[in-house]
Amino acid sequence: MKPTSVARNVSMRSAALPVFRIGTSLGRMLRFTKYSLVLWIAIASCGGAETEAESGRSYVAYDFYYNEGVAMYLQEGWETCVKNLEMALKGWHWWHDNTASCRRNCSLEAEQKELLSANMSEEDRYFERALYSTHCLVRCKKNALGPQRDRVVESNVISEFNNRKPYDYLQLCYYRLGRVKDAANAAATVLAVQPNNTVMSNNLKFYMEQAGIKAADVVNLELKPYGQEYFKATLAYQDNNFGLTITLMEKSLRLFLEEYQTCRFLCENPFDQGWYPDFISSVANHFTFTLRCKRKCMWQLSELSGEVDDDFLPSFFDYLQYSYFQKEETAKACEAVATYLILKPGAEIQTHNKEFYLALDEVNEDMFVPRKEFVAFKEREDYEEELMEFIETNFAFLTDEFWDEEDDELKRLSGLGIRVVKAARKAEEGVDRVVADGLASTLECLVLTELTRLAAVEGDGYKGDFSPHTPSETFQGITLGRAGLMIHAGLIDKAALELILRVTDRCRDYVERHFHLPRQLYFAYTHLVCRTARPVHQVHVDNCILQDSGECLRVPPAYTYRDYSAILYLNEDFEGGELIFTRDRSGLTHELKVEPRCGRLVGFSSGPENPHGVLPVVEGTRCAVGLWFTQDRRHSEVERTMATLFLKKLNKDEL
Ligand SMILES: O=C(O)CCC(=O)C(=O)O
Ligand SMILES: [Fe+2]
């Protein structure tokens, strides 16, 4: 096809100008105005050099300050709340900055180091470099992070920081201190990752009205430098200031690549395998863990407004091609189009633009050379996707022909140590179910079983009430609060409670990842329970009251806020007690039957799409950890927060 004829097509469609895909960018801005504000440029970091005392070490334990801050919030100690949470956030940033820069520098150092022999295999060279890098890391982290450098922060705390929860507490503490502008900024910071948080958008509106704050003055305190420049650039673009758009977009792009690298380095974290695989499997497990994390960097950074923009990176080159074109730098415009097309092969509008440019006298095909670093970038992205696919297809298998096997989503699993036994996702019916093995080690099962047997009190599981689902049933169970009391009473060691939290966190993370949940899961209730030869746990639904008619009533006393359920089984030395998923209340048609065994996790959505029950335990004792999750923070488990705080306090007292 000759370019000229295509160019004519262009002019027939619209003006003879490159088409600019402004849609998503505008959408991005519009989504902000939904809350009648523009999340604006962040205040750059605190500015000025920090003193040595301030610069770290003292607040390395950011989770500690966080817990203190939350405790103060609960006790309405507003000033100490702010002080602790600000320290926590500072510490969090500081930990990230230092960790990432150590990893970056050490990887570079090892890269440049002369190897003992040039003749060794690639594998030898890789591990030799790993040793050099480690040697460097140990020194670097010691210098930068001090004695607590290898402290492991609990995963739920990490995910709360990622979800900006500290700012959620902060905004109220600020407000109570009369710092309304700070409160508004903190609220806007939460909204940037939780755009549908209506409580927060109402708060923000309230703060803005109260203090007469203009939308343009509200800042997202966590907006990264690349995001700040990007927003400035889009504004310049809207003002038709193309020279400035180019400067800012190019700057933002550089910063984006840096941030992307940082994000990847931050994935090279410790990893608890929970078991003891071979050397190579161990390396592969840990590698998979980091790879999975790295694969999320793109969408994490493409989420400037609380919603992922799949075309975020390409969008830079869309702005650039148009702006360069306007500045009559056609060669640069062609380069931008070519780069866009490398990142998104076949993208319609840019293909079109390319044809448009080709029709210009001064343009020829040779000018469409993409930027080198993005060719390499895309190559790595594609490679890693393929690798992930290999991992996900080869380390999971499906047996139950009942389910739509073609759905690739089914085949996901969270680590090589964990094996999906059965999985189902029937999008149209909203069925989410998974059975996976390997979520707890033999030792962990033993400890938890013993603990539950020891601690069990009849009926305790529902705080003395009967379960609303199964009025006739009694069973032995303990909750986190009860475990805390037992430590207090000297009945068990605190390590037992730490174990429960660790294992259940793992299960929560697994369910969240397996179902690709866009919103975080909070624990709503945790319950360790052993059942002994009792009547059947009749068919029920976890978040509504199932009627004989099949209708499911979402009213109290049902736990209507439960979104996902999971059961982690701890033993198998009993008879009966299978978990069954049925089609209706009669329980006559079993869709899926799960035999409990140590480390096996069943996860499922808590709604009427998943009626289930337990067949009678015929002989022996059946022990499991029941976990219920919610996406509504307001229903997050108080006992868990208290247990965590309690442990923190114990650990602190011991120091
Ligand atoms: O123990 C089980 O397998 C399931 C228990 C259950 O469904 C529940 O407690 O809601
Ligand atoms: Fe249930």
UniProtKB/TrEMBL annotation:
Coiled coil: none annotated. Transmembrane segments: none annotated. GO terms for molecular function: iron ion binding; L-ascorbic acid binding; procollagen-proline 3-dioxygenase activity. Belongs to the leprecan family. Pfam families: 2OG-FeII_Oxy_3, TPR_leprecan. It comes from Chionoecetes opilio (Atlantic snow crab). GO terms for biological process: collagen metabolic process. Keywords: Dioxygenase, Endoplasmic reticulum, Glycoprotein, Iron, Metal-binding, Oxidoreductase, Repeat, Signal, TPR repeat. Its EC number is 1.14.11.7. PANTHER family: LEPRECAN 1, PROCOLLAGEN-PROLINE 3-DIOXYGENASE. Residues 514-631 form the Fe2OG dioxygenase domain. Its cofactor is L-ascorbate; Fe cation. Gene3D superfamilies: q2cbj1_9rhob like domain, Tetratricopeptide repeat domain. This is procollagen-proline 3-dioxygenase.
